[in-house]
Amino acid sequence: MSSMRGVLLPGDSTVAPVTREVPEPGHGQVLLAMKASSICGSDIRAIYREHLGHGPEAYQGVIAGHEPCGQVVAVGPGCRRLTEGDRVVVYHISGCGVCDQCRRGYLIGCTDPSRAAYGWQRDGGHADFLLAEEVTCLPLPDSLSYVDGALVSCGFGTAYEALLRLDVSGRDTLLVTGLGPVGLAAAMLARAMGVASVVGTDVSGERLALAAELGVVDEAVEAGDAAGERLDEVSGGRGFSAALDASGNAAARHLALSRTGTWGRCAFVGEGGDVGFDVSQLMIHKQVTLHGSWVTSVGHMADLLGHLHRWQLHPSATVTDTFSLEEAADAYRLADRGTAGKVVITFP
Ligand SMILES: [Zn+2]
Ligand SMILES: [Zn+2]
After folding, report:
1. Ligand nearest to the CA of 95
2. How much is the average pLDDT of 66-82?
3. DSSP string across 314-339
4. pLDDT tens, 224-282?
5. Which of 27, 136, 137, 343 qualifies as a FRET site for 155, CA 20 to 30 Å off?
6. Got the DSSP string for 75-108?
7. Distance CA 178, CA 298 (A)
């Protein structure tokens, strides 16, 4: 093995195949044979359509794909845990390891210049092989597939973190605005965490149908002028004790916050854009707690992998379309439409 195939995203809604040398693992690094590499909403928003390019979202022309899952095929010097043959999920950011955020396991929040996200500032998972830091690799339980693992590496981890922030339990009713992959993940995990009733909204009929078909929501409500009224009916006018926006859309964020009940908690997870709202009416007078939640920690991701194993829950249920690396252009075109469930590139 000397050369490998990979995919770059030039930023004009195209995909550019490249051939690269297979890297050799340095100190503390492992080489992974890629098995599954899923496409994320942020790949579409900040890289595929155009390079939005700020700070942690600045795409550096590397091999794309920040949701990698694979098998260790070579171990560099100084690795302490992984050996050849191990199946691993890659937490998708490598941090400096010594700042406050890294020490808390939130490598996502590292601001050191050495911080690099796979698929953004260092080569990612849309290639035959991936060079990964051992500290960013988490063992994949045998009961989970590589596709399950890829989905945990970003989307399911992000959804789980927001649910932890909301501290959901069997006492809660949950509203999820935006039923793309992260919204679906949130609904699925919330159910497993005991939430009694989950209601979701989306503008896409296909996504509403998928959420209903997967059984992760009790009701899928079409976003639009009538959505608020329907949510009031469903919640008996009391709103939901917890709400999570996974869309990043201003109207959906407003809907999530406005239907958060008194003393409720709301989390904004969907990225980009902005929102305006009546602070007294929607937050202060309702005693609402509003959270921002960005990705997750390495520790919480490891916890989630264990929970999924015990719950016998498979994130891959949210996958609607699977492509090979040669078909990456088709995969991105489909993901860009915003109507599919999760889109994944898999490897033999
Ligand atoms: Zn992602
Ligand atoms: Zn750091």
Report:
1. 2
2. 98
3. -GGGGEEEEE-GGGHHHHHHHHHHT-
4. 999 999 999 999 999 999 999 999 999 999 999 999 999 999 999 999 999 999 999 99
5. 27
6. E-TT--S--TT-EEEEPSEE--SSSHHHHTT-GG
7. 25
Quick check: 1 pLDDT over 90? no
Among candidate residues 104, 103, 153, the one with its CA nearest the CA of residue 124: 153
User: 130 has which bridge partners?
Assistant: 32
57 Cα: distance to centroid of ligand 1 (angstroms)? 11
Tell me the residue length of the chain: 348
Say which ligand is closest to the CA of 114. 2
DSSP state of 157: H
- Split at pLDDT 50, 70, 90, the class of 56 is confident
Which has the closest alpha carbon to 280: 299, 257, 297, 302?
A: 257
Q: How far apart are the first and last CA of the chain?
A: 15
How far does residue 80's CA lie from ligand 2's centre (Å)? 20
Average pLDDT, the chain: 96
Neighbours of ion ligand 2 (CB under 5 A): 95-96, 99, 102, 110, 112
Taking the CA of 113 as reference, the closest ligand is: 2
The CA 109 to ligand 2 mean position distance, Å, reads 7
Residue 104 makes CB contacts below 8 A (sequence gap 6+) with 297
Taking the C-alpha atoms of residue 93 and residue 117, their distance in angstroms, rounded to an integer, is: 4
